[in-house]
Amino acid sequence: MNEFVVSEIKNNIAEITFGTPKSNSLPGAILEKLAQTILDEGAKDEVKAILVKSEGEKAFCAGASFDELLAIEELEASTKFFGGFAKVLNAMRNCGKIVVVRVQGKTTGGGVGIACGADYCFATKDSALALTEINLGIGPFVIGPYVERKIGKSQFSAMAIDADFRSAEWAEQHNVYHSVSENIQEMDEKLEKFLQTLASRSSEALALIKKVSWEGTDHFNELMPARIHMSASLILEDSAKKNIEAIKERLRAK
């Protein structure tokens, strides 16, 4: 499977799918394309809502691409990379359309950010989630405001510190997931009915719901430069590179 972002409008719903070979982890080019695609589809009058999903039946998103993180050697490139996550989340927040996210399996790091950037999120019972950035020697700084908005600062801090997986049930109880199904087939059946209903709703009403639900988040724009710099600078440390190599080696051994 090659890296890709594709979009298709079905019954007034823009379905955006991304995929990469390594557990749908996100390199910079895919982040940029995903952000722009969300904005482009959101600007279309006929689009009432946007569905964001990933390829396959296993991991939803493994966060940042390890290969790209290892290749980064200077601050400008690092800042651009982590800025890509900010662009995706800002696009979800500012596109003017309801964003639905479909989570079919485990998700970590930036993938958790995407789930938390959703206005409505579907998941399966296998969709455990974790903020694993501390294992690399950085932290979930860029996605932090979006995760905090859903689960609160205390729970966000705990996730960032222990890097443990939380169950899909936990994620539903803490406002990340809004529907949890036994399996992918059941989830997709529920999702299809939900999207059909959204397509029948008033565009103006949906846009206003989007607007009021994100009130009080304008300061996210002010936070981002400093948050991006935190991750961008830490990932350049030799210790971070060693951590990533060690994790890659463990994954290869499985």
Automatic annotation (TrEMBL):
CDD domains: crotonase-like (cd06558). It holds the Pfam family ECH_1. SUPFAM superfamilies: ClpP/crotonase (SSF52096). GO terms for molecular function: catalytic activity. Transmembrane segments: none annotated. Signal peptide: none annotated. Coiled coil: none annotated. PANTHER family: ENOYL-COA HYDRATASE (PTHR42964), POLYKETIDE BIOSYNTHESIS ENOYL-COA HYDRATASE PKSH-RELATED (PTHR42964:SF1). Belongs to the enoyl-CoA hydratase/isomerase family. This is Enoyl-CoA hydratase. It comes from Chryseobacterium artocarpi.
